[in-house]
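Folding Query — how this chain folds
Tokens — whole-number codes for backbone shape
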Amino acid sequence: MSAHMKARLIRAKFSVISKRPGKKAIERELPDSLSRQLENWLAKEEQFFNENCLTIKIHTENRTPWEECSPWEDVAAARIAKYTKAGIALRGARYRENLSQKKLAALCGVSQDNLSKMECGKRPIGPQVAKRLAEVLRIDQQLLLQP
């Protein structure tokens, strides 16, 4: 595993604590995207904080090391049995690209009904359709040709 991926296993989590006079302090965790931006900003501004004796409390979340994680096929065995690997890959890639079935169908030249059947494993994905889907979804076409 590359050093870049290992570094992503432990990520700092940031919280905002708001306290009003006479009220209980409320702590809210920042979303991951904001946490990453804040982490990058803090790294750039580290010298300023050190010079002005400012401290920031950072909690890290320990994640399971990559080597100890279960293979996704084991975790998703029930879904694979129900939907097929190709259907799960298609649905996941579609969600990642933030596309509805209707929009993806229009971009690829297939009907929304057929796309739904492909995701549910009720219809196989042919090589030509897999190629068009792979181009739009920016994934390897072989993922869509798996049984």
User: Anything to note?
Assistant: Residues 1-10 have pLDDT under 50 and may be disordered.
